[in-house]
Structures
1.
Amino acid sequence: MSELTNLTIVGARDLLAKGEISSKELTEAHIVAVEAARPLNAFITETPEKALEMARASDTRRAAGEAGILEGLPIGMKDLFCTEGVLTTAASHILDGFHPTYESTVSRNMWDAGAVLLGKTNLDEFAMGSSNMTSFYGGVENPWRRSGDNRPLVPGGSSGGSATAVAARCALGATGTDTGGSIRQPAAFCGIVGMKPTYGRCSRWGIVAFASSLDQAGPMARSVQDTAILLRAMAGYDAKDSTSVNVAVPDYEAAMTGDVKGMKIGIPKEYRVDGMAGEIDQLWQQGIKWLEEAGAEAVEISLPHTRYALPTYYIISPAEASSNLARYDGVRYGLREEGATLDQMYEATRGKGFGAEVQRRVLIGTYVLSAGYYDAYYNKARKVRSLIAGDFAKAYEKVDAILTPTAPSPAFGMGDKMDDPIAMYLNDVFTVPASLAGLPGISIPAGLSAEGLPLGLQLLGKAFDEETVFKVAGVLEAAAAFEAKPAFLAA
């Protein structure tokens, strides 16, 4: 069984195409792996019966010569994507019992491409968090451990369940969503690849909303090529989403030519932040060297408004969250607590249904949108956001892509930083700027810390130029030759 779960998407696809394995066999192996990994708490809802049904249907289609891009490949679906008839919770008590009567566009695209659903992966509640510790269903454990230390670590957030499932070989790949780094940061913490595409590349329809101008779906897998395959299936224009952009979806896999000769790679001087671990900077320098050895040219650039990115993000995203989460009132779906009056019912439902971090962000968002503070906070943040996007636009006049660290540290212990929201928010310092600008970014595992934990490098590209991001990422991945495996697999 372990031989099948250690396959990449590319490897599994090739064996399926040759008829050497069936989707049913591949899915059965992953169902066993999901069960074995339950102590990690990566899944909120497992769907083994549905997975086997989908696998059998996939084998039938393949026999008829009708194989799709993801035909027969078992994946995890972040429990933020509405899945028809399957419990969808956003890791929140307030959505208890919610079984959508419709399918999100991204998940529908993946099922149409032949993918198999193993289950719904755990996350920070409503995607609000950088640790995956705010889930109503309990925190997710990172399958990695520090050398000689068995204390559990966070997988990062909010897509920590997806990252853990992929790293622990429970799924060939998984979906995530990235609002301020929620695909890239957990990918770095768990030693896998995570890709946030350009805002508007993937439809947001049917994804439980956090911050509508920032949320973007993307793939997580164990290689750059695997994420390229997944994104091709996920992406596409959707008339049901007003922010979906009607542009052609390229063959991202074909873009990975391995040739970056003559390309200019931007190195932003503002990303050398105070308190960043020396080993993070060393890895960054090594990444620069790898790309130079491949024929690219490193160019120092300036993104002068970078230091305003985190405060800007933590005004805009809570403001949008306070608006989006107003729909959870106990009337239409999910949790309902009784009260003597309508207002009391609202208060009781939201007080019990929302966790502490969600309540904090709703309160912040409501405050910055309130009369007297809207111009002082929200409108000012919108203006700064435009300046940050302008910094990137100016930089891309002279570089093809930008290389930075993904996170300022490796994974930290479960429970650490939970009593200090600011320390938690600082985990997103390298990922938030590109999110505010709506740009594509990918995290690649590139090395290990002194304590034996994965460290990631981030590549950022121009809007709707994921092809260049994948091309450079493939070269960086080959140079890094990251083959370390988490301690969980040896247990």
2.
Amino acid sequence: MNKLPRFLERYFWDVEFEKIDSDASSRDILARLLEYGDERAIGWMKRNFTMHQIEDVLFHYRSVSPQSANFWALIFNIDKKKVLCLQKPYLEIRRRHWPY
């Protein structure tokens, strides 16, 4: 089991930080850091995960907000048409649940 560095603990307030396995939970870790990470956390993410893994989260995970996904698509030069949470059906569902 690969442990996360202690400075990332603040991003995982809802789980037992010591039990997080960076290999088994890589998609959840990436989604959390893409959504909430600061410069240090993003630097660690880029050193420890491949661009393919980051793209996989953006392409298949809906837990990243549209605002964050749009930002990372611009930063990483990713086609927004491939980002799941930026697709029209997802945005329509989101607007029905959160109409603001």
3.
Amino acid sequence: MKLNTFSFVSLGCSKNRADSEVMFGALIKAGYKPAQAEERPDVLIINTCAFIASARDEAAEEIRQACQLKQSGYCKVVIVAGCLPQRYREKMLEAFPAVDAFIGVDQLDELPGMLEKLAALPRAKRQYPQPVTIAPGLPVRTFDKPIPALRLTGPVFAYVKIAEGCNHACAFCAIPQFRGHLRSREPQAIVEEVKALLATGAREINLVAQDVTAYGKDLRCGVSLATLLKALDALEGDFWLRFLYGFHNHVTDELLDVMAKAKHILPYFDLPIQHCSPNVLRAMRRADTIAAIDTFSDRLRAALPNAVLRTTCMVGFPGETEEDFNQLMAYVERVRFDHLGTFSFSPEEGTHAATLDDLPDVKTAKRRHAALMTLQKRIAREKNRARIGQVQRALVVDYDEDEGVYVRLPHQAPEVDGLTHVCHAPETVAPGDFVRVKITGARGYDLTAKLVD
């Protein structure tokens, strides 16, 4: 059996996208080719997420559909990669017998070799699940992309994973159980990847990790997020640089100083607080964040007056009282985050939180979720209205002949914060260009603007 072409389905977060780019590059290096539009691939690869139940359900449905496509002759081989097989090794073998092979998060570069073995098997034996290639124990590796400039996000922006794993022990989170402990990539490898991306036209670099603010703590050579950002900011070119997914109590004075002096680093902070009540934070095993919770927003805005704050909050955690929730509402009203996402607690097997009692009922959790989102929608609407009339630098991310141009402003991170629509843009404007726009209106979380000469 010949296996020449492949196609990817990448589920979950931007960190998964970076892993897909590692596998994608490894296949191209080995001589495989990505299937073109409307072309049937020989190999269909699904990179999965296993963070929460809805993500696992989505992955399971994609796997079932892929197996049905194989049965119909659409493809020859189905590979399932990433968090789901890493977390549920034995269960995956039983649940999806039509899958040809599974790989975990530590074996991304072994995909070409796996395909060679599958291609060499007699057809009858391929009806049985192949051994998963997940190494025993926790993952221990990091990966540099085989093709540094490769990106699956299109020409304008890129995600660069700077570290893997997490050393935190949040009561509700199972990620360290299948992603392992913190492992930082070497800074020079990151710099070289960013240089390659910029050389091929990327204009927005987004550094990602399970905890980007912990970068370098395991390297023990004086490297930190601050020193890495300083090195990246020194690169030549016209580009934006931002980092995503950190801890507010790990934002150091050195980091703020580097950002304040930088040419390319956007004053954008994605720092999920989860809650503000000390009682809830202790139950979440995030007590080390309590001391910083009251002051971090003022501290960041004092250092960087244009600071943009994004966060995530969890409601309905075991033991959360009405007083705790009202405290969170008052806190969000005071801090006025630019962006805030909310989700209700759901017990994850294997986590400490799944063993806790005094769980608010579903109706209460839904009510709190709705109330917090209603509050944040009002805050976001007020903030967007305050931006009307401002002139800002923007990055063109898409051009549509009929609808005009879509741009991203500094406070809008890719895929999570919305876009800004510019009507009547000349054809000379193209994705990747930086332009100046005047904000003219707000549509929910999105904005409208016009070009400024």
4.
Amino acid sequence: MKVILKNDVKNVGKIGQLVNVARGYARNFLFPNNLALEATERRVKEFEHLKKMADSKRKKAMSEKKQVLEKLSNVTVTFKVNASETEKLFGSITALDISKELEKQGFQVDRRDVRMDDTIKMLGQHKATIHFGEDLETEIAVSVERA
């Protein structure tokens, strides 16, 4: 029996795939748990249309993210903070701090998209990576100065 998966099912397939399964498996497990739909001709056409729409939206979002990354590659984020005599910060600069500072400069970057090896705890020049998914990343400069 051919079914369209509504969710990922282990050892069967991923969401949106058209797979062939045993009739009893579909009737007794997939359909009651709302994991799949029977693949009628109408549903297959509808599914193909939705797949095309999702692909076009994904491509548009990727191009927008590429434009944002191009602008971000020239950005330097500057923090003025209190530090000790040994240039160690009283506190630290985190991904959330960088995200908020980028938002002040007009960029919408989620804190989970900011990648750093560790939080910044010293004065000076540092690097952070903005990662938007598959092959979409750029480095930004983070400058930490004494207040």
